Amino acid sequence: MSRHVFITGASRGIGRGIAQAFFDLGDNVAAVDRRGLGPGIVDRRVAALAADITDAAQVDAAFERAEAQFGKVDVLVANAGVVKDRPLARLADQDFADVVGTNLTGTFRCVRRAARSMMARRSGAIILIGSVVGAVGGVGQANYAASKAALVGLARAVARELGPRGITANVVAPGFIETDMTDGLPEPVRRGHLAQIPAGRFGSAHDVAGAATFLASAPYVNGAVIPVDGGLGMGH
Ligand code: NDP
Prior knowledge:
The protein has 236 residues and is α/β, with parallel strands linked by helices. It has helices at 13-24, 56-70, 93-121, 133-136, 142-162, 180-183, 187-195, 205-216; strands at 4-8, 28-33, 46-50, 75-78, 124-129, 167-174, 225-228. It has a single domain (4-228), classed as Rossmann fold (3-Layer(aba) Sandwich). The chain is built from eight helices and seven strands, in the order E-H-E-E-H-E-H-E-H-H-E-H-H-H-E. Strands 3-2-1-4-5-6-7 form a seven-stranded parallel β-sheet, sandwiched between helices. Helix 2 (56-70) runs parallel beside helix 3 (93-121) and helix 3 (93-121) packs parallel to helix 5 (142-162). It is globular, with a radius of gyration of 17 Å.
């Protein structure tokens, strides 16, 4: 049976890789980004939806459209996220609010809406894409680190609340993954990161997708943080 997998931030990078992986497993994929670009797969099992997760009405409308096409959501992958790195002294209130508003509050909105469908059916998997930075910090990333650390608390609260209803909530915590988000970093910074990764390479969207598809089929894994970082965070 094909599942209905709802993925935010699926137009590029990690989200696109996750969408491809679920599609390859035979699932139906609702792919969300702000422009409705979709994950680059043209198939009746893929819906490309435009929604900004900072807007509650747009989130609700995207879920309505996806459920009209594929039925209730079985798996949520809340992946959409942004960075606005600044040294602490120059981190404006708006920079903090923007990053938390997307990465944490936007994710919360998707979780709440997906849970509604899952509770009715007493099954479901909620997968949040966090970051190793949420556990170990990052220079100039107070806003981003705070938003990603908070996702662990969000997932664990939901795991306790909805576990009895057959719903899991887990976090995947990627390390340094080659995407648009990291492409812009200066070469010395990239070299510095690489030196700290025991695997000796940066990760790919495919690496992260493996953890997401695993969690979607692991009903006894709940409230966990799964690092996908080549050893950078040593299990944290
Ligand atoms: P990208 O910047 O490559 O892609 C981000 C995706 O999120 C795009 O599809 C973007 O689409 C979408 N998006 C951003 N804001 C919104 C919004 N408000 N509403 C809906 N969609 C939105 O990022 P990555 O693929 O690198 O990262 C994906 C996730 O993984 C993020 O949560 C990131 O924090 C996390 N992560 C990334 C790591 C890395 O090294 N790359 C490491 C650890 C975690 P559009 O702009 O068209 O709306």
